[in-house]
Amino acid sequence: MGRSIEREEAIRALLAPILDAKGYSLVRVKIAPEEQSILQVMVERSGGEAIELEDCADVSRAVSALLDAKDPMEGPYQLEISSPGIDRPLMNAEDFKQYMGYDASITLNAIRERRTKLEGLIVDVADKAVKIQAEGSKKIVTVRFSDICDAKLVLTDSLIKAAADMDR
After folding, report:
1. Pairwise CA distance, residues 87 & 85, whole Å
2. pLDDT in tens, 51-89
3. pLDDT value at position 14?
4. Per DSSP, what are the bridge partners of residue 28?
5. How far is CA 19 from CA 14, 56, 77, 160, in A?
6. Cα dihedral across residues 129, 132, 134, 138: positive or negative
7. Residue 22 maps to which CATH number?
8. Closest among 92, 91, 150, 93 to 116, alpha carbons compared
9. Among the three residues 41, 56, 82, which one is the final residue of a domain in this structure?
């Protein structure tokens, strides 16, 4: 595991309890290595309500104070607070279960079935793997979570309709 991933996990462990107490769920922590690192913190309301600008400001204040006190980053960095958006990242089994029946785009750690990227419908989820019906095929592919580098929902009409229904 790389230093960046270890640091992201440490920051996640530091931030999650404080955000949970404020009514937010921590979706993702990511460090983007730039000339000056960018620390991306993605949150959503625990109840599923939309994140407003005031929420981002509230989270930013709480996160900034905690990061200043604990100093888990090396050197200068820029803090970015955001919501996951409609084509949200899928970070764990619970995310895949919540969005079963929707399309996902998955980037794999290594070549599998002659590809490193897979798109398709999430048809089943277990503790260690997700089953995807490959796009344009009836074939079901089982992907272990440990083989996933990155995953997110694909913006489709059905996802847009579901998001609009939730906002009502």
Report:
1. 6
2. 899 999 999 999 999 999 998 888 889 999 999 988 899
3. 96
4. 42
5. 10, 11, 20, 27
6. positive
7. 3.30.300.70
8. 150
9. 82
CATH classification at residue 155: 2.30.30.100
Cβ atoms of 153 and 159 closer than 8 Å: yes
Where is pLDDT greater, at 68 or 164?
68
Q: Which two tokens stand for residue 156?
A: 């489709």
CB atoms within 10 A of CB 52: 11
The token pair that represents 150 in the structure block: 């990155």
* Contact assessment for residue 79 and residue 59, using Cβ atoms and an 8 Å cutoff: no
Residue carrying the six token digits 């997700």: 130
Task: Give CA–CA dist 10/12, Å, rounded.
Answer: 5
What is the spatial distance between Cα 93 and Cα 30, in angstroms, rounded to a whole number? 19
Copy the structure tokens of residue 116.
């490193």
Do 113 and 71 share a structural domain? no
